[in-house]
User: Fold these one by one.
Assistant:
Number 1:
Amino acid sequence: MNRLRSFAVLLSAAALASCSYEKNAIQDIVAPAPEASVRFFNFGILAPNVNFYTGTTKLTAVNVGTCTTLPPAVPSDACMNAGSESALGVGFGGVGSGGLYSGLEPGAHTFSGRISAVTDKDLPISNLTATLENGKKYSFYQSGPYNSTAKTVDAFIVEDPVPLQDWTVAHVRFVHAISNAAPMTLYARHQTTGVETAIGGATAYKSAGTFTNLPGGLYDLSTRYAGATTNTLVRTAVPFLGGTAYSITARGDLTAANTTACPATSRTCLDNTTHR
């Protein structure tokens, strides 16, 4: 046991020595990794582009700077600067960090989306307090119409209880992020077999349904209100692969024209994002 501890100390010392030339690069490789994680969506209608935060800690941003190499005496992978932050942030219909999760310590967090542009820079337009549990994953959504006078937009968070990977099926669930739509059920129709499957049950705004197993294949998706025979939203030819988990999220403004794609406008659509 002592030999193992000594080895861990040596590893830590080596890591500190190798990173000392790079500003803010030191990491504690002995401490346990964060055990909760969150990813962030900007589905707020006409909302400005944002960076996402927990408290005052920025979790998503885009770096557009370049690396300036230090003199030869310093290792070649070091940089004099870390570049500059893009004012673009996460736009409407986008997901922060390329869809990757941000690791966080379990416990209470105050999340916010803050304007990334120069005008009103870092002004929070959404705020939500949530308690993250150990070992769980979550998705945070800005949603609903953006109030340009108050400079606010709605937000909610849902747990992502992704099933264990099974290569024989795809795992699919429905998330409802349209503020002016009643509870809906998502249906997936296999293009080859014609079999239509309800993905969970009726799901209300600001909530997510359960994951449903589907055979891999190409599907036509639709949502319907309880008791209705006509579709509210439609998206065709969506591929679902075995061993992959998907969240199909209804977003946009129900009073705008529907579309089968997902443009960067207020039109409604069914967004498709993978979990793995």
Number 2:
Amino acid sequence: MRLQFERRGHSTILSQSRFTLPLQVLTPLVLEDGTAYLMLLNPTGGVLGGDQLFTEIVLEKETHVCLTTPSATRIYRTEEKPAVLETAIHVGEDSTLEYLPDHVIPHAGSALRQSLRVEMERGSRAIILDSFAAGRVARGERWNFSQIDSRTEVIACGKPAFLNRTFIDPAAQQPERLGLMEQFGYTACLSLFADGFEDWPAVAAAMHAELQNVPQIKGGVSLLARGGCVVRYLANSASGMTRTNKCLWDAARELVLRLPRFDHRKY
């Protein structure tokens, strides 16, 4: 899949769109502030071992794009090769990216290798969410997958701003051990970036306060060395994590993007 966005008057439009199934994109909606709100989807219902899916997204100068998915991404059992998901996003000068896909659900016996690389130019801003489940928790499948190898990299103005690597091999190290996931079955990481923004301690304190108001969630907030902060949290349920994602996203929009909250329903 390759998507490109450009500014037309007050609004951001999808100027180029090319994709091959099982990747697909719906027609974007334009919010009141001109943001392009777009859903990325896989109509096949999941990702199989051996699949290699690549997504490239380009935000041209002064655009604002909000990307999400209609539901969680399911990773199915594989006998040999892992499922591979690679995403590369370029955020142009003075542009804004909100990248908030639903969580990943690894089925028993599945293996996933995914990567997200975001390159940000001068004056750009971004809210990025990465989350996954321990498996099909409601079916009693906790940590029954083979492997998850997930990497998120953010480059701001040509310099590394954030690198997050998650590697889970349940057979080698049980994630339910004390000090790791323990009794929690869901984990998420929300990262915020804004070139030129300086009041990060206040943002971190506000995000920490938001976390304290959400029941059955454990998490914390860390400042980045170069223009940003990261919120990490654990949840006991998918619904609890989803509520927390929404709460923190809304707060990030107000604190960093200076934009109001909006309806998060899946259009």
